[in-house]
Design goal:
By secondary structure, the protein is mostly helical. The chain contains ten helices and no strands. One of its GO terms (molecular function) is transmembrane transporter activity.
Length: 257
C-alpha cells in the first residue's frame, strides 16, 4: 500500500491540477495531524485493547485510500479538497497505529533477534514497495498514452485499499501477549507532562532537535518535487517512477551492507 499511496499521492494531486498552495496543504496538514494523533495514541490506547486499536487504525487507512480511489474515478469539482481530507485521515490513522505497533512487535520478537528481524522486515518491505511502485509507474505510463491515467490511479488506489483491508484481517488474528486494555489509564495532561520530562534528557533533546531540523529542511521543498518533475520537466509517469524509485533502492542496498 505504501508503494502506491504514499509515493503516488503527489502525482495524483498534479493530475487533478492542484495549485502550489494546495500541494503545500496536501503535504503539511496530514503530517501535522499525524504528529498530534501519535500523542493521542499514547494517551488513548491504554483504555482499549492494543490489537483493537491497531486494527481500527488500519481499517481507517483502508477507508481513506478507498476514498482516494473514489475521487480518481468520479473526479468531482472539489477533488483536491477531498483529497486533502482523505490524506489527513490516512496519515492520522497511520501515526495513531505506530506507537502501538512498535510496542506489539517489541513484545513478540525476542530482544536478541530484534535487529536482524527488523532489518529483514524493512528490506522485504522496501523491495516490495519498489516493485509495486515501478509496476504502477509502468501502468500509469501506458494508460497516459490513451488519456486514461485517472482510471489507472483509481485502480491502483483500489488495490492499495484491498491490501490494507487484508492487513487488518490478518492483524485481527495475530497473537498479542500484552493485555493493553487491562493497564491503568492515564490522563492526557499526564501524557504531556511525560513528554516534557523526556525533553529534560540531553541526548533525547538533541536528537529530537536534529530530526526536527532535518525534517523541516526536507519539508520546504518536498511538496513541490512532483509538480516540478511532472509539470516543468514534463516527465512521463514511468520516468517519475524511475526517478523516485532510486531513493527506495538506495535505502534497500544501504540496509544490506
Amino acid at each position: 500500500m505504501t508503494g502506491i499511496c504514499d509515493n503516488y499521492l503527489g502525482a495524483f494531486a498534479v493530475s487533478l491540477r492542484a495549485s502550489l498552495a494546495q500541494m503545500g496543504w496536501l503535504m503539511a496538514a496530514p503530517q501535522l495531524a499525524g504528529a498530534l494523533f501519535q500523542l493521542l495514541s499514547v494517551w488513548l490506547c491504554p483504555r482499549f485493547s492494543r490489537r483493537r486499536a491497531i486494527v481500527t487504525g488500519v481499517v481507517m487507512q483502508a477507508l481513506a485510500v478507498l476514498g482516494m480511489a473514489g475521487i480518481a474515478l468520479s473526479r468531482p469539482d472539489n477533488a483536491v479538497t477531498w483529497l486533502i481530507g482523505f490524506a489527513i485521515l490516512y496519515q492520522a490513522s497511520a501515526n495513531f497505529v505506530q506507537p502501538q505497533w512498535r510496542g506489539w512487535m517489541g513484545s513478540v520478537v525476542p530482544p536478541r533477534r530484534r535487529g536482524a528481524f527488523f532489518a529483514g522486515r524493512t528490506r522485504l518491505t522496501m523491495i516490495t514497495s519498489f516493485t509495486v511502485f515501478a509496476g504502477g509507474g509502468a501502468l500509469l505510463g501506458l494508460f497516459q498514452r490513451y488519456e486514461l491515467a485517472w482510471l489507472c490511479f483509481g485502480g491502483l488506489f483500489l488495490l492499495a485499499a484491498v491490501g490494507r483491508g487484508t492487513s487488518a484481517h490478518q492483524l485481527r488474528h495475530m497473537h498479542d501477549p500484552d493485555h493493553s486494555g487491562e493497564r491503568a489509564a492515564i490522563s492526557f495532561t499526564t501524557t504531556l507532562s511525560r513528554v516534557r520530562e523526556a525533553f529534560r534528557d540531553k541526548t533525547f533533546y538533541q536528537y529530537s532537535l536534529f530530526i526536527a531540523g532535518m525534517q523541516s529542511a526536507v519539508a520546504i521543498s518536498a511538496p513541490f518535487f512532483s509538480v516540478y518533475m511532472l509539470r516543468d520537466l514534463n516527465f512521463t509517469y514511468w520516468q517519475f517512477a524511475a526517478n523516485t524509485g532510486v531513493a527506495i533502492l538506495t535505502q534497500f542496498f544501504t540496509l544490506s551492507v
